[in-house]
Specification:
Blueprint (H helix, E strand, L loop, with lengths): L1 H27 L17 E7 L6 H9 L8 E8 L5 H6 L6 E7 L5 H10 L5 E5 L4 E2 L3 H6 L7 E9 L5 H19 L9 E5 L12 H11 L3 E11 L6 H21 L6 H4 L1 H14 L1 H13 L5 H21 L3 H4 L2 H24 L13
Parallel strand pairs: 1-2, 1-4, 2-3, 6-8
Antiparallel strand pairs: 4-7, 5-8, 6-7
Helix pairs in contact: 1-6, 1-10, 1-11, 6-14, 7-8, 8-14, 12-14
Length: 376
Protein backbone atom coordinates (compact mmCIF):
# COMPACT_ATOMS: atom_id res chain seq x y z
CA UNK A 1 0.00 0.00 0.00
CA UNK A 2 2.85 2.41 0.88
CA UNK A 3 4.43 1.76 -2.51
CA UNK A 4 1.17 2.54 -4.34
CA UNK A 5 0.74 5.78 -2.38
CA UNK A 6 4.36 6.76 -3.09
CA UNK A 7 4.05 6.36 -6.86
CA UNK A 8 0.55 7.85 -7.05
CA UNK A 9 1.61 10.96 -5.14
CA UNK A 10 4.80 11.21 -7.22
CA UNK A 11 2.79 10.96 -10.44
CA UNK A 12 0.33 13.66 -9.32
CA UNK A 13 3.20 15.97 -8.34
CA UNK A 14 4.82 15.38 -11.74
CA UNK A 15 1.50 16.02 -13.47
CA UNK A 16 0.88 19.29 -11.62
CA UNK A 17 4.21 20.80 -12.68
CA UNK A 18 5.28 18.96 -15.85
CA UNK A 19 2.60 16.57 -17.05
CA UNK A 20 -0.06 19.24 -17.46
CA UNK A 21 2.14 21.56 -19.59
CA UNK A 22 3.16 18.56 -21.73
CA UNK A 23 -0.52 17.64 -22.17
CA UNK A 24 -1.34 21.20 -23.26
CA UNK A 25 1.58 21.22 -25.70
CA UNK A 26 0.47 17.93 -27.27
CA UNK A 27 -3.18 18.90 -27.57
CA UNK A 28 -2.11 22.31 -28.86
CA UNK A 29 -0.53 20.66 -31.90
CA UNK A 30 -3.96 19.36 -32.87
CA UNK A 31 -6.40 21.98 -31.59
CA UNK A 32 -5.93 25.76 -31.64
CA UNK A 33 -8.24 28.70 -31.07
CA UNK A 34 -6.55 31.64 -32.77
CA UNK A 35 -7.48 35.21 -31.91
CA UNK A 36 -8.89 37.24 -34.81
CA UNK A 37 -6.92 40.50 -35.02
CA UNK A 38 -7.02 42.47 -38.27
CA UNK A 39 -6.79 46.20 -37.56
CA UNK A 40 -3.26 47.40 -36.87
CA UNK A 41 -4.41 50.72 -35.39
CA UNK A 42 -7.15 49.46 -33.07
CA UNK A 43 -7.22 51.98 -30.22
CA UNK A 44 -10.40 51.78 -28.13
CA UNK A 45 -11.11 54.07 -25.22
CA UNK A 46 -9.25 52.85 -22.14
CA UNK A 47 -9.49 53.58 -18.43
CA UNK A 48 -6.55 52.39 -16.36
CA UNK A 49 -7.30 51.73 -12.68
CA UNK A 50 -4.36 51.70 -10.28
CA UNK A 51 -5.19 50.92 -6.63
CA UNK A 52 -2.57 52.19 -4.18
CA UNK A 53 -1.85 52.14 -0.49
CA UNK A 54 1.18 54.06 0.80
CA UNK A 55 3.09 53.90 -2.49
CA UNK A 56 5.09 57.13 -2.16
CA UNK A 57 8.27 55.12 -2.75
CA UNK A 58 7.32 54.10 -6.29
CA UNK A 59 4.49 56.40 -7.38
CA UNK A 60 6.76 59.00 -9.04
CA UNK A 61 8.37 56.30 -11.18
CA UNK A 62 4.93 54.88 -12.01
CA UNK A 63 3.60 58.27 -13.13
CA UNK A 64 6.65 58.85 -15.33
CA UNK A 65 6.19 55.36 -16.77
CA UNK A 66 2.53 56.09 -17.59
CA UNK A 67 3.57 59.37 -19.19
CA UNK A 68 5.81 57.45 -21.60
CA UNK A 69 3.09 55.07 -22.83
CA UNK A 70 2.50 55.11 -26.58
CA UNK A 71 -1.28 55.56 -26.62
CA UNK A 72 -3.51 58.47 -27.73
CA UNK A 73 -3.95 60.84 -24.79
CA UNK A 74 -7.57 61.54 -25.71
CA UNK A 75 -8.35 57.79 -25.56
CA UNK A 76 -6.81 57.17 -22.14
CA UNK A 77 -7.97 58.04 -18.63
CA UNK A 78 -5.96 57.06 -15.56
CA UNK A 79 -7.66 56.59 -12.20
CA UNK A 80 -5.40 56.30 -9.17
CA UNK A 81 -7.43 55.02 -6.24
CA UNK A 82 -5.97 55.46 -2.78
CA UNK A 83 -7.15 52.92 -0.23
CA UNK A 84 -6.67 54.99 2.89
CA UNK A 85 -3.04 55.99 2.22
CA UNK A 86 -1.37 57.80 5.10
CA UNK A 87 1.91 58.78 3.42
CA UNK A 88 2.70 61.30 0.67
CA UNK A 89 1.06 59.32 -2.16
CA UNK A 90 -1.79 61.83 -2.55
CA UNK A 91 0.48 64.86 -2.65
CA UNK A 92 2.82 63.26 -5.18
CA UNK A 93 -0.01 62.34 -7.54
CA UNK A 94 -1.74 65.72 -7.30
CA UNK A 95 1.56 67.50 -7.75
CA UNK A 96 2.49 65.62 -10.92
CA UNK A 97 2.34 67.77 -14.06
CA UNK A 98 1.40 66.10 -17.33
CA UNK A 99 -1.08 66.28 -20.18
CA UNK A 100 -2.32 62.82 -19.19
CA UNK A 101 -5.91 62.60 -17.97
CA UNK A 102 -5.13 61.58 -14.38
CA UNK A 103 -7.78 61.52 -11.67
CA UNK A 104 -7.04 60.84 -8.04
CA UNK A 105 -9.85 59.19 -6.08
CA UNK A 106 -9.66 58.38 -2.42
CA UNK A 107 -11.17 56.10 0.18
CA UNK A 108 -10.72 58.02 3.41
CA UNK A 109 -10.43 54.79 5.41
CA UNK A 110 -8.93 51.48 4.40
CA UNK A 111 -11.62 49.25 2.96
CA UNK A 112 -9.56 46.80 0.92
CA UNK A 113 -8.52 46.32 -2.66
CA UNK A 114 -12.00 45.28 -3.84
CA UNK A 115 -13.49 48.54 -2.59
CA UNK A 116 -10.74 50.55 -4.31
CA UNK A 117 -11.24 48.74 -7.61
CA UNK A 118 -15.02 49.11 -7.38
CA UNK A 119 -14.65 52.87 -6.88
CA UNK A 120 -12.61 52.89 -10.05
CA UNK A 121 -15.23 50.89 -11.96
CA UNK A 122 -17.94 53.32 -10.83
CA UNK A 123 -15.96 56.07 -12.57
CA UNK A 124 -15.29 54.13 -15.76
CA UNK A 125 -17.25 54.57 -18.98
CA UNK A 126 -14.67 53.47 -21.59
CA UNK A 127 -14.92 50.31 -23.66
CA UNK A 128 -11.87 48.71 -22.03
CA UNK A 129 -10.65 48.86 -18.44
CA UNK A 130 -7.04 48.06 -17.59
CA UNK A 131 -5.96 47.12 -14.07
CA UNK A 132 -2.37 47.78 -13.01
CA UNK A 133 -0.29 47.89 -9.85
CA UNK A 134 2.00 50.74 -8.92
CA UNK A 135 5.01 48.40 -8.79
CA UNK A 136 5.07 47.34 -12.45
CA UNK A 137 6.81 49.47 -15.07
CA UNK A 138 5.15 48.93 -18.44
CA UNK A 139 6.86 48.77 -21.81
CA UNK A 140 6.12 51.80 -23.97
CA UNK A 141 3.84 49.79 -26.28
CA UNK A 142 2.29 47.60 -23.55
CA UNK A 143 -1.08 49.37 -23.50
CA UNK A 144 -1.34 49.37 -27.27
CA UNK A 145 -0.55 45.66 -27.32
CA UNK A 146 -2.92 44.55 -24.56
CA UNK A 147 -6.03 45.98 -26.25
CA UNK A 148 -5.42 44.39 -29.67
CA UNK A 149 -7.04 40.98 -28.86
CA UNK A 150 -10.34 42.71 -28.05
CA UNK A 151 -10.90 42.97 -31.81
CA UNK A 152 -12.03 39.36 -31.46
CA UNK A 153 -15.57 39.45 -30.06
CA UNK A 154 -14.99 36.20 -28.15
CA UNK A 155 -12.24 37.72 -26.00
CA UNK A 156 -13.31 39.22 -22.68
CA UNK A 157 -10.11 39.45 -20.65
CA UNK A 158 -6.45 39.83 -21.66
CA UNK A 159 -3.49 39.40 -19.36
CA UNK A 160 -0.16 41.11 -19.86
CA UNK A 161 3.15 39.61 -18.84
CA UNK A 162 5.08 40.70 -15.77
CA UNK A 163 8.77 39.90 -15.96
CA UNK A 164 11.11 39.81 -12.98
CA UNK A 165 14.72 40.39 -14.11
CA UNK A 166 17.40 38.13 -12.70
CA UNK A 167 17.61 34.39 -12.16
CA UNK A 168 16.09 34.17 -8.70
CA UNK A 169 13.52 31.56 -7.80
CA UNK A 170 10.64 34.00 -8.12
CA UNK A 171 11.82 35.04 -11.59
CA UNK A 172 12.24 31.43 -12.77
CA UNK A 173 8.84 30.46 -11.41
CA UNK A 174 7.35 33.52 -13.09
CA UNK A 175 8.76 32.48 -16.47
CA UNK A 176 7.30 29.00 -15.99
CA UNK A 177 3.88 30.50 -15.22
CA UNK A 178 4.00 32.76 -18.28
CA UNK A 179 4.85 29.80 -20.52
CA UNK A 180 1.96 27.84 -19.05
CA UNK A 181 -0.47 30.72 -19.64
CA UNK A 182 0.59 30.88 -23.28
CA UNK A 183 -0.19 27.17 -23.72
CA UNK A 184 -3.59 27.56 -22.04
CA UNK A 185 -4.36 30.64 -24.12
CA UNK A 186 -4.05 28.71 -27.39
CA UNK A 187 -6.68 26.15 -26.37
CA UNK A 188 -9.10 27.70 -23.94
CA UNK A 189 -8.73 30.35 -21.22
CA UNK A 190 -5.91 31.05 -18.81
CA UNK A 191 -6.29 30.04 -15.16
CA UNK A 192 -5.55 33.54 -13.90
CA UNK A 193 -4.45 36.92 -15.18
CA UNK A 194 -1.39 38.85 -14.08
CA UNK A 195 -2.59 40.83 -11.09
CA UNK A 196 -0.18 43.64 -11.90
CA UNK A 197 -1.37 44.21 -15.49
CA UNK A 198 -4.49 42.93 -17.24
CA UNK A 199 -7.43 44.28 -19.24
CA UNK A 200 -11.15 43.49 -19.50
CA UNK A 201 -14.21 44.58 -21.43
CA UNK A 202 -15.93 47.05 -19.15
CA UNK A 203 -19.32 45.59 -20.07
CA UNK A 204 -18.28 42.26 -18.51
CA UNK A 205 -17.00 43.71 -15.24
CA UNK A 206 -18.94 42.94 -12.11
CA UNK A 207 -18.30 44.44 -8.69
CA UNK A 208 -15.25 42.86 -7.07
CA UNK A 209 -16.05 40.77 -4.03
CA UNK A 210 -14.15 41.21 -0.75
CA UNK A 211 -11.60 38.56 0.12
CA UNK A 212 -11.16 37.25 -3.44
CA UNK A 213 -8.15 37.60 -5.74
CA UNK A 214 -9.28 40.27 -8.27
CA UNK A 215 -7.20 38.96 -11.20
CA UNK A 216 -8.43 35.39 -10.75
CA UNK A 217 -12.01 36.52 -10.12
CA UNK A 218 -11.94 38.58 -13.34
CA UNK A 219 -11.02 35.47 -15.34
CA UNK A 220 -13.76 33.42 -13.65
CA UNK A 221 -16.35 36.15 -14.31
CA UNK A 222 -15.24 36.35 -17.95
CA UNK A 223 -15.60 32.60 -18.55
CA UNK A 224 -18.92 32.47 -16.68
CA UNK A 225 -20.30 34.93 -19.24
CA UNK A 226 -19.15 32.84 -22.20
CA UNK A 227 -16.00 34.77 -23.14
CA UNK A 228 -12.34 33.75 -23.23
CA UNK A 229 -9.54 35.04 -21.05
CA UNK A 230 -6.16 34.92 -22.79
CA UNK A 231 -2.62 36.24 -22.47
CA UNK A 232 -0.85 38.69 -24.76
CA UNK A 233 2.92 38.09 -24.50
CA UNK A 234 3.77 41.32 -26.31
CA UNK A 235 2.09 43.41 -23.59
CA UNK A 236 4.82 43.35 -20.98
CA UNK A 237 6.17 45.08 -17.94
CA UNK A 238 8.94 44.58 -15.41
CA UNK A 239 8.95 44.49 -11.67
CA UNK A 240 11.61 43.72 -9.10
CA UNK A 241 11.54 40.59 -6.99
CA UNK A 242 10.37 40.57 -3.40
CA UNK A 243 13.02 41.64 -0.94
CA UNK A 244 13.08 38.42 1.07
CA UNK A 245 11.92 34.82 1.13
CA UNK A 246 9.81 35.74 4.16
CA UNK A 247 8.13 38.50 2.16
CA UNK A 248 7.47 36.08 -0.69
CA UNK A 249 6.03 33.53 1.76
CA UNK A 250 3.61 36.03 3.27
CA UNK A 251 2.58 37.32 -0.16
CA UNK A 252 1.89 33.80 -1.41
CA UNK A 253 -0.23 32.90 1.63
CA UNK A 254 -2.37 36.03 1.17
CA UNK A 255 -2.74 35.45 -2.57
CA UNK A 256 -3.58 31.77 -2.15
CA UNK A 257 -6.28 32.35 0.44
CA UNK A 258 -7.91 34.91 -1.87
CA UNK A 259 -7.57 32.50 -4.80
CA UNK A 260 -9.12 29.62 -2.88
CA UNK A 261 -11.99 31.87 -1.82
CA UNK A 262 -12.60 32.94 -5.43
CA UNK A 263 -12.54 29.38 -6.75
CA UNK A 264 -14.97 28.22 -4.06
CA UNK A 265 -17.26 31.07 -5.05
CA UNK A 266 -17.17 29.98 -8.73
CA UNK A 267 -16.82 26.23 -8.11
CA UNK A 268 -19.51 25.45 -10.72
CA UNK A 269 -16.81 26.10 -13.36
CA UNK A 270 -15.01 22.95 -12.18
CA UNK A 271 -17.77 21.02 -13.95
CA UNK A 272 -16.61 20.20 -17.52
CA UNK A 273 -20.24 20.06 -18.67
CA UNK A 274 -20.49 23.71 -17.61
CA UNK A 275 -17.15 25.15 -18.73
CA UNK A 276 -15.68 22.55 -21.09
CA UNK A 277 -11.89 22.69 -21.49
CA UNK A 278 -11.64 25.42 -18.87
CA UNK A 279 -12.58 22.87 -16.20
CA UNK A 280 -9.38 20.95 -17.03
CA UNK A 281 -7.44 24.21 -16.69
CA UNK A 282 -8.88 24.87 -13.22
CA UNK A 283 -8.41 21.30 -12.00
CA UNK A 284 -4.85 21.06 -13.31
CA UNK A 285 -3.40 24.56 -12.92
CA UNK A 286 -5.12 25.47 -9.67
CA UNK A 287 -6.34 22.50 -7.62
CA UNK A 288 -3.63 20.00 -8.59
CA UNK A 289 -0.95 22.62 -7.89
CA UNK A 290 -2.56 23.56 -4.58
CA UNK A 291 -2.57 19.90 -3.54
CA UNK A 292 1.15 19.35 -4.20
CA UNK A 293 2.08 19.92 -0.49
CA UNK A 294 -0.22 17.01 0.39
CA UNK A 295 1.36 14.87 -2.34
CA UNK A 296 4.86 15.74 -1.09
CA UNK A 297 3.91 14.77 2.46
CA UNK A 298 2.51 11.44 1.23
CA UNK A 299 5.69 10.78 -0.77
CA UNK A 300 7.86 11.45 2.29
CA UNK A 301 5.79 9.39 4.74
CA UNK A 302 5.32 6.46 2.33
CA UNK A 303 9.06 6.52 1.66
CA UNK A 304 9.75 5.98 5.36
CA UNK A 305 7.91 2.65 5.19
CA UNK A 306 10.05 1.51 2.27
CA UNK A 307 13.56 2.25 3.52
CA UNK A 308 14.50 -1.43 3.52
CA UNK A 309 14.68 -1.32 -0.30
CA UNK A 310 17.73 0.27 -1.97
CA UNK A 311 15.77 2.37 -4.47
CA UNK A 312 13.60 3.95 -1.78
CA UNK A 313 16.64 4.56 0.45
CA UNK A 314 18.18 6.58 -2.41
CA UNK A 315 14.84 8.38 -2.90
CA UNK A 316 14.74 9.31 0.80
CA UNK A 317 18.31 10.65 0.70
CA UNK A 318 17.48 12.69 -2.43
CA UNK A 319 14.47 14.25 -0.70
CA UNK A 320 16.49 15.03 2.41
CA UNK A 321 19.25 16.69 0.35
CA UNK A 322 16.72 18.75 -1.62
CA UNK A 323 15.08 20.12 1.52
CA UNK A 324 18.50 20.65 3.15
CA UNK A 325 19.54 22.79 0.18
CA UNK A 326 16.34 24.80 0.57
CA UNK A 327 17.06 25.32 4.28
CA UNK A 328 20.66 26.41 3.65
CA UNK A 329 19.50 28.85 0.97
CA UNK A 330 16.90 30.26 3.36
CA UNK A 331 19.67 30.69 5.95
CA UNK A 332 21.43 32.82 3.33
CA UNK A 333 24.43 30.52 2.79
CA UNK A 334 25.69 32.37 -0.28
CA UNK A 335 27.30 29.45 -2.14
CA UNK A 336 23.94 27.64 -1.96
CA UNK A 337 21.66 30.66 -2.37
CA UNK A 338 23.39 31.77 -5.58
CA UNK A 339 23.37 28.29 -7.11
CA UNK A 340 20.55 27.41 -9.53
CA UNK A 341 19.62 24.25 -7.62
CA UNK A 342 19.64 26.21 -4.37
CA UNK A 343 17.34 28.87 -5.83
CA UNK A 344 14.93 26.29 -7.23
CA UNK A 345 14.83 24.17 -4.05
CA UNK A 346 14.29 27.23 -1.85
CA UNK A 347 11.52 28.73 -3.95
CA UNK A 348 9.78 25.36 -4.48
CA UNK A 349 9.84 24.68 -0.75
CA UNK A 350 8.70 28.18 0.21
CA UNK A 351 5.84 28.06 -2.29
CA UNK A 352 4.58 24.68 -1.13
CA UNK A 353 4.90 25.57 2.55
CA UNK A 354 2.86 28.71 1.84
CA UNK A 355 0.20 26.61 0.08
CA UNK A 356 0.03 24.29 3.08
CA UNK A 357 -0.38 27.22 5.49
CA UNK A 358 -2.96 28.81 3.18
CA UNK A 359 -5.03 25.60 3.19
CA UNK A 360 -4.99 25.48 6.99
CA UNK A 361 -6.08 29.10 7.25
CA UNK A 362 -8.67 28.83 4.46
CA UNK A 363 -10.26 25.66 5.91
CA UNK A 364 -10.31 27.27 9.37
CA UNK A 365 -12.42 30.11 7.93
CA UNK A 366 -9.81 32.83 7.42
CA UNK A 367 -10.71 35.33 4.71
CA UNK A 368 -8.58 38.36 3.76
CA UNK A 369 -9.53 41.70 2.29
CA UNK A 370 -7.25 44.38 3.72
CA UNK A 371 -4.21 44.21 1.47
CA UNK A 372 -0.59 45.21 1.79
CA UNK A 373 1.04 45.85 -1.58
CA UNK A 374 4.13 43.70 -1.97
CA UNK A 375 7.26 45.75 -1.35
CA UNK A 376 9.74 45.07 -4.13
Amino acid sequence: MAEILFWLALFLTFYAYLGYPLLLALVGKIVRRPVAMTATAYQPGVTMIIPVHNEERVIDAKLSNLDALDYPRDRLTILIISDGSTDQTRQRVLGYRSDLQIRFLELSQRQGKAAALNLGLQNTSSEIVVFSDASIMLATDALKRIVQPFQDVSIGCVSGEDHIPGGGGEGLYGQYELSLRNLESRLSSIAGASGSFYAMRTSLCKPFLPGMAPDFLSVLVTVEQGYRAITEPRASGTMSSTKSARGEFQRKVRTLIRGMTALWHARALLNPFRSGMFALVLWSHKLARWLVPVFLLVIFLANLWLLDRPFYMVAAVAQALFYLLALLALLDIRVIRDNLLGKVSMYFTVVNCSIFVAWIRFLSGTRLEIWDPTRR
